[in-house]
Each structure stands twice: as C-alpha cells, then as structure tokens.
From TrEMBL:
GO terms for molecular function: nucleic acid binding. It comes from Porphyridium purpureum (Red alga). It comes from the Eukaryota. Residues 12-63 form the Tc1-like transposase DDE domain. It holds the Pfam family DDE_3. This is Transposable element Tc3 transposase. InterPro entries: RNaseH_sf, Tc1-like_DDE_dom. Transmembrane segments: none annotated.
Amino acid sequence: MLQNDGVLDRCRQMVDPNMVFLQDIALVYKSRLAKNFMIDKNVELRDWPAYSPDLNVIENMWEIPAPKVYVGARECQMVLELKNTILLVWETLDQP
C-alpha cells in the first residue's frame, strides 16, 4: 500500500519528511519486500510492542463507537458504507 499509492510520500509531505514509522511484529512488516522498501525509502523504523492497545490512541478511541457501528453483527460491504456509518455514529456521540 505504501509503495503503490504514494502514501509514504504524502505522509512525509503532511507530517514530516523525517517521520518515524512505528510497526508491530506482524509478519507483513517482516517480509524481505517490506524491509527493502523501507530501507530504499530511508524510513526510520521503531518497533512497537507486540499487542499494545493501551499505547494505541486509535484502539482506545475506537472502543467508543465500534459497538454502534457494528450493532447486530452488521458488516459493511463497501468502504464508503463503512465511512458513512462511522460518521453517523460519531455525530451521535457525546462529544465532551
């Protein structure tokens, strides 16, 4: 994904050209292709603990809307449907 969509380049433009990429121990990050890509692109890597939702702000935040997004074991068939569902749920949350 980083390579094909130019995501890495856009992230560097929006965040910081010298950003650090945090990764866990998922096998997808350990492949030769992924390692070579990161080396070729001069990406600084930092290891992230294997399963650390307590350190992941997104995981902690997602606990709030997720039950409403997936109520009744709902599954969205398209990305746009999921996005719209999340936005609708977000609007119903108590913001403070």
